[in-house]
């Protein structure tokens, strides 16, 4: 197994685990409502990660209009690799949901009832 593969497995091993659908359903009383909450949180996490990565990579950007050859920047490559090794936002959101770390509120006109 390659070094990179082992690093990916060790980083996500504590996050990736099979979830019981009944446990997910019991958090809100409705499986689809629970999944919707997780999906919305995963989207928030994904947007935050993209913005953070973009800001870090922007430091290395060259704003010239010439067609010069693009050279490799080792720091930029390492930053990109670090973000590639991060767990999937859906896994992070599911873990947060199961640990009651997500605040959500129900609309009075609940469409799920």
Automatic annotation (TrEMBL):
Transmembrane segments: none annotated. It comes from the Bacteria. This is DNA-directed RNA polymerase subunit omega. The keyword Transcription applies. It comes from Hanamia caeni. GO terms for molecular function: DNA binding; DNA-directed RNA polymerase activity. GO terms for cellular component: DNA-directed RNA polymerase complex. Keywords: DNA-directed RNA polymerase, Transcription. SMART domains: RNA_pol_Rpb6 (SM01409). The lineage of its organism: Bacteria, Pseudomonadati, Bacteroidota, Chitinophagia, Chitinophagales.
């Amino acid at each position: 197994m390659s070094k990179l593969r082992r690093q990916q497995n060790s980083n996500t091993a504590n996050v990736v685990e099979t979830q019981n659908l009944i446990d997910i359903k019991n958090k809100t009383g409705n499986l689809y409502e629970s999944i919707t909450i997780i999906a919305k949180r995963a989207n928030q996490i994904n947007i935050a990660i993209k913005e953070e990565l973009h800001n870090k990579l922007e430091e290395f950007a060259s704003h010239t209009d010439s067609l010069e050859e693009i050279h490799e920047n080792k720091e930029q490559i390492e930053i990109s690799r670090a973000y590639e090794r991060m767990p999937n936002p859906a896994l992070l959101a599911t873990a947060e949901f199961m640990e009651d770390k997500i605040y959500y509120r129900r609309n009075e006109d609940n469409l799920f009832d």
